[in-house]
Structure formats: structure tokens, C-alpha cells
Backbone:
């Protein structure tokens, strides 16, 4: 069976763990060649060890212009092209109100979650023009609906959504598609560690299952499957969308029990 991403080169930021690693595994399974960008050498080494040495691991910080310029150059030197830029790198902390967030925390969130997209686009656009490639941004449902005690994080994801739509319009003339995926809850190592710190893992699991209309909080593979679709020719006429991968979490309240209201 023909693999959906055979010989495509994907430049994937934040691809060494969590949702990013799930995406990397799915991309590789569908025949893609990967440049994995991460600022964590340990997880980067692990990711390449399970993906295979035919893929490229690059230690770099998406918030640093020089790092991203060099990462793009290294990817082109190694593979000769870039077909997809997937901006997945992001942070969600600190968990605070706006007035509690200090300037350094504010800047870190925006520099990684938003400015990182600026850097990859600035230095990778010419390669995408040549390949008529696409851009995928990892957003979040909170960019649309907000989230208590995560105001700045939600603001960055709102910015990602606006960027996605505007970039889709700007780059359509080059036949470059730009889309985003917007998960709700997803079980990652980071979320599991946070849950353990709250000393109520069962309560948190029940909560996270409950916010999804389909009744469970998924693993990152559901997001990866959506990204494979958006990166492939199956999505060749889709651009400027923020695709919910959320199990219906955005649809509204659901009944908390099965009792009929009389």
C-alpha cells in the first residue's frame, strides 16, 4: 500500500517527546524523512534511536533566530528539501492569572509558542515555495474557548490560530497550505507528571475523560493521525483551518450521569 508521506521531508519542532514524538512516529510510518528539532538532548537522542539514523536530530531553541536559521540550513544540506514545517514546540506553564505572570514568564510563552512560528517561516519559506509544501501548527482548543489559570498560554494559542489563517492567505499564491490542529486534553508525560503532583490522579483522570464528549482523554496518536492527513495530498484543498482533535470537547456541556430528567 502506498504510504501517504513517502519521501516527504518534515521539519518538526518539539518532536522528541509528547505529541511531537507521536507525530514523528506516524510521519516515519507513512514514509517521511524527519528533521527533529528539540532543545533537550536526552529526549532528542532517544527519539532518533527509535526512529532510526536515517532521520536527523537537531539540538536547537525555536525562540532563537540563529538556531532556527541553522536548523533549516542543516536540514536542507542533509535532505535537499523541506516539504512540511510542523510547528509543534510549545510550553504551557506557568499556570497563573495574567497579573500573577511575571514578564519573563510572559516572554517565554510567547517566544516559544508564537515567535517560534515566525522563525521557522522566516527561514524555511523559500524551501516550501520550492516544494509547494505546507505548514502545520499545533494549537489548542483553549485558543478558542480560554482556560482558567492559563490566560497567557491561551493567548499564545489564540495568536497561533490567527497566524494560521493569515499565513494561509499570504502563502496561498505559492500553493503553500497552512493549517493547525487544536487538541483539548491529551495524555503526555508532562500531563501525567502534573497529575501526580496534584495528589488526585483519579480525580484528574475522571475530569479529563469527562470534558470530552466521546468520554475519554486520548493519547497523542489521535493528533498525529490528523497531522498525517493535513501533511498529505489527501488534504490538498484544505488551508486556513483550525482542526479540533478534541473528542467534541468544544460542543458544550454533557450530562454528568445517565439519569433522565423528569
Residues:
Amino acid at each position: 500500500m502506498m504510504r501517504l508521506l513517502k519521501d516527504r521531508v518534515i521539519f518538526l519542532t518539539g518532536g522528541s517527546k509528547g505529541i511531537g514524538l507521536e507525530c514523528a512516529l506516524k510521519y516515519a510510518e507513512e514514509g517521511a524523512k524527519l528533521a527533529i528539532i528539540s532543545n533537550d538532548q536526552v529526549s532528542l537522542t532517544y527519539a532518533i534511536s527509535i526512529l532510526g539514523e536515517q532521520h536527523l536530530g537537531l539540538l536547537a531553541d525555536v525562540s532563537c533566530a540563529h538556531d532556527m536559521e541553522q536548523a533549516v540550513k542543516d536540514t536542507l544540506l542533509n535532505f535537499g528539501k523541506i516539504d512540511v514545517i510542523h510547528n509543534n514546540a510549545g510550553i504551557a506553564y506557568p499556570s497563573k492569572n495574567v497579573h500573577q505572570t511575571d514578564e519573563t514568564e510572559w516572554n517565554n510563552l510567547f517566544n516559544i509558542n508564537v515567535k517560534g512560528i515566525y522563525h521557522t517561516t522566516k527561514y524555511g519559506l523559500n524551501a516550501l515555495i520550492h516544494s509547494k509544501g505546507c505548514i502545520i501548527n499545533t494549537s489548542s482548543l483553549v485558543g478558542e474557548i480560554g482556560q482558567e489559570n492559563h490566560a497567557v498560554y491561551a493567548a499564545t494559542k489564540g495568536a497561533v490560530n490567527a497566524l494560521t489563517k493569515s499565513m494561509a492567505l499570504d502563502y496561498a499564491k505559492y500553493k503553500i497550505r497552512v493549517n493547525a490542529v487544536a487538541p483539548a486534553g491529551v495524555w503526555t508525560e508532562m500531563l501525567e507528571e502534573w497529575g501526580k503532583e496534584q495528589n488526585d490522579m483519579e480525580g484528574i483522570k475522571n475530569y479529563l475523560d469527562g470534558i470530552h464528549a466521546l468520554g475519554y482523554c486520548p493519547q497523542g496518536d489521535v493528533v498525529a493521525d490528523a497531522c498525517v492527513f493535513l501533511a498529505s495530498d489527501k488534504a490538498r484543498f484544505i488551508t486556513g483551518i483550525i482542526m479540533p482533535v478534541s473528542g467534541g470537547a468544544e460542543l458544550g456541556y454533557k450530562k454528568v450521569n445517565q439519569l433522565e430528567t423528569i
In short: The domain at 9-183+222-243 is CATH 3.40.50.720 (Rossmann fold). Confidence is low (pLDDT under 50) at residues 257-262. The two ends are 54 Å apart (CA to CA).
